[in-house]
Amino acid sequence: MAMDIKQVGPAFAGEVTGIDLRLPLDAKQVVFVEAGMDEFAVLVFRNQPITDAQQLEFSNNFGQIESSEGGNPTSKLHNRRLRVDMADVSNLNEKQEVFERFDRRRLFNLGNRLWHSDSAFRATPAKYSLLSARHVPKNGPNTEYADMRAAYDALEGWMKEEVEDLICEHSLMHSRGALGFTDFSNEELETMKPVLQALVRTHPANRRKSLFLASHAGSILDWPVAEARIFLRDLIEHATQPQFVYAHRWAVNDLVMWDNRQTMHRVRGFRGEEQHRDVRRTTIAGDGPTTRQRA
Ligand SMILES: [Fe+2]
Question: What's the CA-to-centroid distance between 112 and ligand 1, angstroms?
Fold first, then answer.
């Protein structure tokens, strides 16, 4: 079957056919997927019943796999359900049971319902994320993706000038704090120190500019905090208008791959949280920091 990509979102997001992720990719297939990512920023692969090993092998084609360590500092006290090179964004504990309502890991993961770009809280943020749905509840939840290139393009000229050289501070402390989750140990706080990120990024392949935003962004260098927060809130509101958003409705064995440099995403809430949601993410590290970090 020939490889193909058909647009499924309003202005971006494509569905790929003709590639079996259980098998090693050849060079032509890797180039095809990379080019698809540069163009669409979100790619959907349906009916891909892969194992963890196959997901890792597929991910390896696109760069260095990021360790998930530090992504959810509250999980440190527990045994992992998945290996460290896979981020567990399911609602399950190490016994494969759905988290209790007050489980701190569950409360921390609620932050994934805020718009974000994966690993924007790391000095080197993520390039791609690849999320494989092994078990999904009936009726959701969807994941929504926002095209940050289109959002940048739609800014008025004076606003493009305003954002051009701004540097933001990103931290998990800020996104979780926004939900009132501030009850962290000193050790957890240590892993969540803010990092600096450029607000405007240029994609290395297609040269398009995009807004690099996330709910982790809590301040802008040299700005009063209150002014920075309302400015960032307005920008996120602008960037997530319906014309910039693709909502993915998950089916079991979907794999969705997105470019964190060009998109934001969030998972939605859903009814029936007692149902298992087993979704496993591999993350490809970016090339380096987006701006110079503090010494
Ligand atoms: Fe995420």
Answer: 6
Distance 1 CA to ligand 1 centre (A): 32
**Does 293 fall in a domain?**
no
42 has which bridge partners? 258
Question: What whole-number distance in Å separates Cα of residue 14 and Cα of residue 91?
Answer: 27
Question: How many Å lie between the centroid of ligand 1 and the Cα of residue 158?
Answer: 31
Domain total of the chain: 1
Mean pLDDT by 10 residues, the chain (295 residues): 92 96 97 98 98 98 94 84 92 94 94 97 97 93 97 98 98 96 91 96 97 98 98 98 97 98 96 91 97 83
Whether residue 294 is contained in a domain is answered as: no
* Containing structural domain, residue 255: 4-285
CA distance 247 to 288: 29
Asked whether residue 292 is domain-assigned, the answer is no
Distance 47 CA to ligand 1 centre (A): 22
Q: What is the CATH number of the domain that holds 270?
A: 3.60.130.10
Tell me whether strands 42-45 and 14-17 are parallel, antiparallel or unpaired.
parallel
